[in-house]
Amino acid sequence: MTHMPNGLTAWLTDASLLRDAGDFAGAGRLAVRDPATGELVAQVSLSDAKGARDAVDAAHTAFATWSTMLPQKRAEILHRWHDLIMDAKEDLARIMVAEQGKPISEARGEIDYAASFVQFYAEEALRPNIEGVTSHLDDAEMELWREPVGVAALITPWNFPCAMITRKAAAALAAGCTCVIHPSAETPLSALALAELAARAGFPEGVMSTIVGDAATIVGEWTGDARVRALSFTGSTEVGRLLYRQSADTIKRLVLELGGHAPFIVFPSADLDRAVSEAVKAKFATSGQDCLGANRFYVHRDVYDQFCEKFADAVKALTMGKGADDPDIGPLIHERAIAKQKQQVADAVAKGAKILVGGNVDPLGPLFFQPTVLADVTDEAAIMSEENFGPVAPITPFDTEDEVIARANATEYGLVAYVHSLDPRRIYRMTRALQFGMVAVNRTKVTGAPIPFGGTKQSGLGREGARQGLEAFTDIKYVCRDWG
Ligand code: NAD
Q1: CATH number where 317 lies
Q2: CA of 363 to the centre of ligand 1 (A)
Q3: Range list of H helices, 202-334
């Protein structure tokens, strides 16, 4: 790790001992490797089940003071955390590139995005948390008090290693909860850097603990602990189902932000050039490793050939390389992701698809998969029903609105759908018919701290961001007072 001023250099150097040990070696150190080069970036000490329990003990104790602290004081600490994150933006972006591989401009954008949740919830902490109710009883007055639930367990993935933490933690902390955080094993350094900045911001001991360790062990401790009252998870639908089951015995409040399988639909009434440039963003941001990534492209037959040609040209122009060199596309996170790309391309081709661009691992290195465009992909191809989570774009033609609605909705997922058309009635009908938590019309970027992010069906439960992001971290206490 080279560029880390503001004290982070020293802090990470401490975590970089035993450089020659293997992954999860000895008494528990995790080797963090640069996906672009395979080089060792740092070694992180792993916690065990006792560490996970200790973190809950501390969070449970700290809850008594944090939950009763004046909201203004909590907001002040959150604002300080926000400012420290922004001051350390370049360091955090470089840490992220080193362990996650994304292009540096995207990493910088993620730090802005991550910090925006902290600022938003620092302000939300000050909003009224008592609501009046019009009484239906004589001589009684009624109120709803929103109260923090207790300790919250936050479990995050590697694709947005900072933003997925702040989106959860800032909401939980603003609500008055304390939290224990388990980041992905691929990206512990971003999480530890955020934790270090949180400590400097002045969160009291135990209010926010970040625990790196074997996921099943650490999170298993937390799901089994009745003191953990809320669990917020972002990751795959498969692990989400497991945590849902594990949380049942103690009836935890749940937020599950799970997988997506976004359709990207282009009608003849679309601005085609705009649809193409938005399609490139929707597919290839974060090198395709985005739950909002467009997973399947449905293009009306009247503009199909034109779209395929323009999209293929745009994709050929994308640059690929190490995140630090700021290409359009970086490496994928691990070998499993590469294997999935290979399988999905081979399967689609075997079922009739044509490769217009890419299709292979790139000579740049074993974790670089070429941006790929497949045309004439049939619905039987696995990529039309499985998450791709990589840089492969399958395109298929359609003829009617009803047909494309049925095909777009024929999925267990329901996170986001993209529609391109300039016909207002068509847009209205499509927006109504698509069974997704978010519908983006003629654009790709939809997220932000003030909007409730989340999906329908097996893309998850609950919402993050916005006022709604506080709901899982609060219980409603109904108070009915009779003055007699
Ligand atoms: P993942 O489900 O494998 O892992 C996510 C987190 O769960 C990690 O921290 C991991 O350590 C932990 N985990 C893994 N196995 C566990 C177990 N047995 N018990 C407890 N915890 C466990 O997902 P991933 O590969 O890290 O991330 C990619 C997935 O995340 C994709 O499916 C993507 O769509 C989804 N995602 C969703 C959103 C959203 O907001 N809806 C955002 C980003 C990513």
Answers
A1: 3.40.309.10
A2: 29
A3: 215-223, 237-247, 272-284, 301-316
